Structure formats: C-alpha cells, structure tokens
Amino acid sequence: MIQMKKKPLVSLIVLLLVAGGSYLGWQRFHPAHPANDSAQPAPRKASDTLHFDLNAPQLTFLQIKPAEAFPEPLVEALNARIAYDDNHTARIFSPLAGRVTKISAEAGQQVKAGDVLLQLDSPDYAAAASDNAKAAADLMRKKQAYERARQLFDTQGIALRDLESAEADWHQAEAEALRAKAHMKNLASADKTTDGQFNLRAPIAGIISERQVNAGSEVRPDAANPLFVITDPQHLWVLIDLPERQLDKVKVGQPVFVEVDAYPDEIFYGRVTVVGATLDPLTRRVQVRCYLNNPEHKLKPEMYARVTPDVDNEAHLPRIPNSALFTQGVSSYVFVELSPGVLQRRKVELALQGHEYSYVKQGLSAGERVVTSGALLLNSELSGEN
Asked: Residue 282 in 3-state DSSP?
C-alpha cells in the first residue's frame, strides 16, 4: 500500500486564510441572534447531511465539481520542465566571422530548409570563394596541359618524364579543387559570388523560436549563443529529475500524464524514452526524458510541468483537489452533493495524496459531485449546535 504524504505547511496556512475569509462572508447569513423572523432560515441537519434551500445564499460560497477517474499512480506528480526536442531542433551559428548587413527572418516565422536567414559581409567568405574559383580554374588549365602532353607523347614529341610531370600537376590541382569545393559545401553556400556577401541559410524546416542577432552585429563562429534556433514545436521533450528512491517506478516505454499551470484542466500524454544511465552524485537524481506530441502548439519549451507515470493497469481512482479534503482526528472527509441543496459528509480512504490532488481508494466513486471549496465551512455548520 502506498504511503500517504503530509501536506506542506505552507499549503495548510493558505487554506486556513482562505477559509477564514470565506467564513466571515458565511457568517453574514448565520447571525447569533436573528433580528426578525424574515432572516434566512438555517439549513436542516441530519447526522452527516445538510439540507439547504435551492436559493440559500450559503451555496454561493461553494464550488462543486464531479470527481474524475484517473489511472492509479505509483508516485505523486514529479516536477519536470518542457524542453526542445533536439532531434527536431537546430541551433544555428555563423561558420564565419563578419558583420551582419541584412536579416531576412524573424522569431515566430515559418522557414523551409535552404531559406536565407541573414546576410553577412565576411572577408573570410570572400577568401574561401576566391580559393574555390582559383582552384577550379587551375584544375581546368592543368587538365588541358596533361591532355596536350598526352598527345605529344603519343607522337614521341616529349619524353615520358614530361608526361608524368603533367599528370602529377593535374592530380594535385584536382585534389586542391576538391578541398576548396568541400570548404564551400561546409559553409552551406550555393552562391557563386566572390564579393564576401555570405548568406546564412536554414538547415532544416521549422519555426524560428529564438533570434539573438541584429543588423550591424559582429558575429564569430566561436560565439557562446546561437544566432537562431529553429525547431518543430509539434515535438517536445519533458525532462524529469527523478529521485533515486523512485527509480524503480519509471521505465522506458511507460506512458506519462503531463500537466502545466497554463492549462489546469487539461492533461497531455507522453511516453518515457530515456532513463539516464548515471546518477548525479550531488542531487542523487537521475534524468528521465519523455517524448511529448504537441500538435496544437499549446506547450512551450522551458515551461514547468508535473508528470505522473502511468502503471499500465486498469485501475482508475477518483481524483479530487486537496481543497476538498478536511480531517477529523486521523480520518479524511469530503462533502458529496446527493442532490441540489443536499450535502453529505463522507469519510474517505486515500491511496495517494500529492501536493495538489489526492486519489481516493474508498468512500467515493468517479462522477460523484464533490465540494472542492467551502468544505470546512460546511463541516463547521454540521458540527455546530442546533
């Protein structure tokens, strides 16, 4: 049986402050000595049930939601962050030093592979393009010289030594041309100009998520930060720093449920792809990577997230927010709406209690409507004197 964890002290203090503020408003409808007979009638009480009129103002202080069924987790939600999927991301640096003369792409822009991102005035590029042009011209000249020497040798016009020398010069020029051509290819340049205007192009298709360069900036190939980051936002990673004691709860291929603060009522589904091979000696944690499909582009890199590993079984339990719970002695209770205006206090047994949500093992069924805000006020009403 999974042990339940205690709520943090801060959460308890915040809950008491909220309950105290709501209690002041609640008391407006519960005067100690009613001034006249027209005051709002008190709710009828049974042993564990409160009956309110449908128009009772006390009901405006309550929030009631159905308990949703979720797969029973092995552990509480793990802290994580969303990151770029490096398999679909390119961080682009300039391969040459130079000054930016024109920027052709902006953050958020969709680009295709080969699109020009910026133009650079680079003497290094001018030298590389010049070397390439000279190597190509030298190769052509020495190849022609070899062909003439071959014809002369066939007519015994030159010695074999001269033919061999012409052939060696041709092969040396060929090697130099290949080197210069490979250098230009490494620069990802299809331009034939030698004026030093270098076009930095996108290596992959995607969306420009970051741009860290301006017109007139001096750039270098050894810069610390990339000039552009291009990524496919449909593919993301979720990185978890998994505590050592929970290493046996996660495995490659396991489904996970991802939640973020930006969409509190929505769950995103992912899958564990990598479990780190080593443990960080300082934090005693191992990094776990999950793949997350993001077709609607709702999630963004560097968002904080909470990840709950699925146990791949058929067990589903009602999940309720911790604000719905209150304790009496060592037991936990909730208020369940039996019908409009009829609220019953019910004892529940928890399978797992996290920082925000609890999973109910006994005492509550999925779909039942639970008071998620105002349960303490109802309990004080039920426990008060008639």
From this structure: coil
